[in-house]
Amino acid sequence: MNKKELSTAIAAKSADIKSATEAGRIVETILDVITAELVAKGEVEFYSFGKFSTSEQAEKTGIIPGSKPPKKYKSPAKTVGKFKFSKTLQEKIANK
After folding, report:
1. 30-60 core/surface letters (b: 16 or more CB in 10 A; e: else)
2. Tens digits of residue pLDDT in 9-45
3. How many domains does the chain have?
């Protein structure tokens, strides 16, 4: 499901939202708020859904496979995004 399909589904399920365009603006606002919080190294948690967060990945050295002689490269340290499913959502997915 993409953002447009999500917006259409929200508009269809909600009596308060009149159009997919209005739902799309709401979805965009929610994503903007989540993004801003993650950029600030915060976390966003939705009870019974999951938690968005960030973590730091250390610098690491790797080897390019198949290179003769083996060539090494460095992957710089970086911040990565994470999502952890809630137990409730995991159970719903498993039980279908």
Report:
1. eeeebeeebeeeeebeeeeebebbbeeeeee
2. 999 998 888 899 999 999 999 999 999 999 999 999 9
3. 2
Distance of alpha carbon 30 from alpha carbon 12, whole angstroms: 18
CATH at residue 93? 4.10.520.10
Q: Are residues 56 and 27 in the same domain?
A: no
Give strand ranges (E) for the chain: 44-46, 50-57, 60-64, 71-75, 78-85
47 and 91 belong to one structural domain: yes
Total-model pTM: 0.78
Same domain, 26 and 50: no
